[in-house]
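User: Here's a protein and a ligand (MD3). What would the complex look like?
Assistant: Let me lay out the input and then the predicted complex.
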Amino acid sequence: MTADFFDTSDVLPAREIIAEGAMLLRRFARPIQHDLLDAIACLSAQAPFRRMFTPGGYRMSVAMTNCGSLGWITDRTGYRYDAIDPDSGRPWPEMPPIFRELAGQAAAQTGFAGFRPEACLVNRYEPGTRLSLHQDRDESNYDAPIVSVSLGLPAIFLWGGLKRADKTVRYRLEHGDVVVWGGPSRLVFHGIAPLADGEHALLGRQRINLTFRQAR
Ligand code: MD3
Ligand code: FE
């Protein structure tokens, strides 16, 4: 088994620090990947992915849905959290217990005990899809972190500063990676570079990202 001497995949640091308050747990979600994908199939059958419009009139290239008691939406009138899916007129699907547990465990591991997200935004990327640089500031409570889970094709995550013009650093986020964004990192500008084409063994030509939020 000499080849294994240089295989560091099982000795990666538990937490990689991106910035103060931003911690990457590589592959953290992999043990429950199948449960996560089953739950995403179930919730997106009830609340299908859709491309929403921004207040500026552009249609986003990312397709989105939500689960939990609140969901993030955007339309011509603005960005907000709402208990009702505007496409169906019904509440968003309930947050699957496995989602809640994953988010809570990741937050606890990185020093944010008692994380109770009521919203989970589910983003779907296909090759070419991007998310331009933005801040997440529609939540009323910036003391709580945001927990993100990457599934499927890898993405280049752009990590900026507190001003839009600050230079960005690139991180590759892969299947199963979980990042907790809190403290001084909570209001940092960030985005996703256009998704490169590829084929993922479980998800095919797509990337799905979950973001767990305490919206109020
Ligand atoms: C840093 N999503 O939904 S996840 C978003 O991959 C969003 O779909 C991206 O940005 C995605 O708003 C990036 C990483 C992420 C999420 C929220 C953050 C990083 C963050 C909030 C504050 C700081
Ligand atoms: Fe964001």
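Summary: Residues 134, 136, 190 surround fe (iii) ion (ligand 2) (CB under 6 Å).
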